[in-house]
Amino acid sequence: MSRPVRVSPQELRQTLIEAIVEVAPDVDPTTIDPCEDLAEQLALDSVDMLATLVSVNERTGIEIPERDYPKLATLDDAVAYLVHAAVRQVDAAARQEEDSSI
Amino acid sequence: MPSLGADMESGTLLEWRVKPGDVVKRGDIVAVVDTSKAEIEVEIFQDGTVEQLLVAEGTRVPVGTVLATLQTTSDESERAQAPSAPPPPTEGPSAERPRVSPVARRAAERLGVDITSLHGSGPNGAITLADVQGTAGSTQAARAVKPDEAPAPSVAADRQAAMRQAIGALMARSKKEIPHYYLQSTIDLSGALEWLGKANETRPMSERLLPAALLLSATAKAAKEAPAMNGFWRSDAFQPAEHVHLGVAVSLRGGGLVAPAIRDADRKSVDELMASLNDLVRRARVGVLRSSEMFDPTITVTNLGDLGAEVVHGVIYPPQVALVGFGAVGERPWAHSGMLGVRPLVTVTLAGDHRVSDGAEGSRVLALGGRYRQRPEEREK
After folding, report:
1. Per-residue pLDDT tens for B52-85?
2. Is A33 on the interface with B (CB under 8 A)?
3. H-helix or E-strand containing B155?
4. CATH architecture of the domain with range A9-101
5. Among A94, B147, B181, B273, which has the minimal tally of Cβ within 10 Å of its Cβ?
């Protein structure tokens, strides 16, 4: 598993927006309401949402289990989720390194 | 100019991907054509050597116009009508045209931005609206648009009007000519979704399946076993199709829809269908499809449920004779084994053509599809 390279909320937000625009090139990022459901406001269907999350995963290395998809429904929620997930993954990687160095 | 959908009357040749003397194989992309809906990569239908290009880039011609002549291996020139357009420029086509979304292309035209000079930041280097606006903003501050004004209302409105007209004409023809009948049935997806959830747990994100892939798979398998739903009404007679080329209605960003086909969907696994669906939707969203996907879907599926509708009663795409619609998958009350419980349900509808089939037959097809949907694991064996 690749280690997350971006952990700052600003960068993760930017990454998520880039992933959305990749899937829906006509979306103007400045008009996204961060508290409103992304799929609803941008008319993204399940294929678009999956493609967006896959793109985020490829750009950041952050794993998103399917059961967590609902936690990424809005831009703000998604960024909060990604920050936590990134921190968790960095911690886990650090622990693994410590373990192996003992 | 090939007919790339029953609602297409003319198309603009955007770009040649070959030049005279090029050797081409069946399936090679030889040109890109703009319909009112999307850019279509036109594949050649047989092997040969390009003899002459008869239509210049940028020219709009009616369906049926000869675009080029091809020297086939049997050494007979495939020539039909006289050329209806000026000869092409003498130099060969530019190496690789940058991928550019239709929205970005229109914005570039309006802003006078040369798209070949841009570096695309989209998938596979595709040029996005933001790229165009970025360039326009830096070099033509005075003419730069505010993001919320793009694309140009007039250009977008023209295209939107053309698309609405094309869709309207085709749907009016369908409703006028096809005696539709409608059936609907609600299916318990708990078994299928449980299977899907387990399958996805162990998969990397890029290989995960969506319920839509199961619905497409079940529809394709049922269509294969229901010849009266799968084929074409042509010259006052029904022609059943041998294979299932499953049309998938994809809404376009900015309005309108296209229904390109996943070819041989009945012979594809759920994984292959998911990959095809991802690919098709991605290309439809940026507006680049292939000719082989456009001209012969044998039955179409519309999955409006993704955006919330509970039931969709579709209009059949002529010359097809059936359309399957899926509403939203949602948890609703359901009686099972004498108990009332909450289960994930989907309402599937069938629009059938009375010239070809009756409700009884349609009903059997719905039941068949329902069985496939409930037991995806059996289909995988």
Report:
1. 898 888 888 888 888 888 888 665 444 433 333 3
2. no
3. helix B153-177
4. Orthogonal Bundle (1.10)
5. A94
Any idea how long chain A is?
102
Whether A25 and B285 lie within 8 Å, measured CB to CB = yes
**Using 50, 70 and 90 to split pLDDT, how confident is the model at B120?**
low
What single-letter DSSP state applies at residue B283? H
Candidate from A45, A63, A64 with C-beta closest to B306: A45
Q: Cβ contacts (< 8 Å) between A66 and chain B: which residues?
A: 197, 200-201, 208
Q: Is B295 exposed, middle or buried (0-12, 13-18, 19+ CB in 10 A)?
A: middle
Gap from B250 CA to chain A (nearest CA, Å): 10
Supply the ipTM of this predicted assembly: 0.82
> Using a CB-CB distance cutoff of 8 angstroms, which residues of chain A are in contact with residue B121?
18
CA distance B119 to chain A (A): 14
3-state secondary structure at position B126: coil
Domains and CATH numbers, chain B: 10-78 (2.40.50.100), 102-151 (no CATH), 179-380 (3.30.559.10)
Residues B212-240 have pLDDT tens digits of: 999 999 999 999 988 899 999 999 999 99
